[in-house]
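Backbone Fold Data
Goal — fold tokens
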Amino acid sequence: MSLITPVRVTLRVVDMAVRATLAFRLRALFVIAAVGLGIASLTLIVAAVDGAQKRAREVVDTFGPDAAFILGGDIQSRAVGQRVLTLSWRDAEALRQSLPGAYMVVPMRAKWNVILKYRGRSVDLPTVVGATQNYASAWNWPLAEGRDFTDRDVELGAKVGLIGATPAQKLFEDESPLGKTVFIDNLPIQIVGVLSYRGGTTGGGGDPDDRLIIPLTTLTQRFNMDRKYFRALRVKFHEPEYMDAHAANLRSLLRHLHGLEPGQPDDFTILTPDTILKFLSMLTGSLVAFLGVTATVAMLVGGFVLANLFYLSVSERTQEIGLKKAFGAKNRDIMVQFLAESVLLTLAGALLGVALGVGLGQALTRLGVLEIELSSRVLTLSLLAALAIGILFGLRPAKRAAGMNPIEALRGG
């Protein structure tokens, strides 16, 4: 009996709150919409942060904890006219022979936006990468079929290639690409290896599987590129726990090889897993700061709309309040009723806000603006925030209603 009574009381309070809400539909919609906008921003924050953290883990796993990626030019300064082909075969050989802890050095260069053909089929290929032997091993990218390049392939400028999963599917469907000859413009390339499906996106939002890898010497010879320099280097190290020391040694050796004096800026950029995590954390922090201000302002606006409309509601419902008090309702009962109405509206706003936030987040994900990760935490935090808004901004109007004198309330009615 003691348990049934509180349940009945709760259900009665909820029923009265629903009836009162339905009696003032327009005001209820204003409150729900105002709170919903704030909760939508909060939903975006939580989902975007979770998505950014997930993406950071994926990027680091793909990048490899034991590797460094060196790009020609200083990508942080982005100086106009800056030379980006600053890495040479001399650098690669010196790193192989003299860099402590390094066991693999793979130079790379790329040609963008070519047409790849096989018999009567053709696909637009965003990237053709020129690399040396051990490309797949350097990127921790297993081969689904075939073999990687050899020293002899690179030395002879062989017309062989590794094909990614995306063009392989488009050109060959369920047929094995091994041994088949594809054409880049008029250059025939025999497929000797098929990269396994990796999935995800590249830093620019592209498909990492949409590529063809050929020997670097073949790329530079056949497309009349500078044969002395290349765009990037991939270096792998023993003992990845000492990556900071490896990066420092790498930077020191490259500065020496390039004849850079103290105080001169680097003409290269070194990326390590820590660098990537710091960069992604900076982006996440900026995103959280922007959306956090937006969410806070939106929720405060929603709260003030709620408070003002409830003050108006209290003024218009004085007769109702007076009658309830005349029939024995206590101050606490009146306050609980108005708080229940407030919480009901903000919870409805939370559900609307979560739906809006998820919809907007998915739209932004499709556009490549951000990546969201939905979890139960999104709904939990949204409901708690809505509950807090309902109680915080509904408390004063509820107290005002509860503190009314029943006789004066009836006269006012």
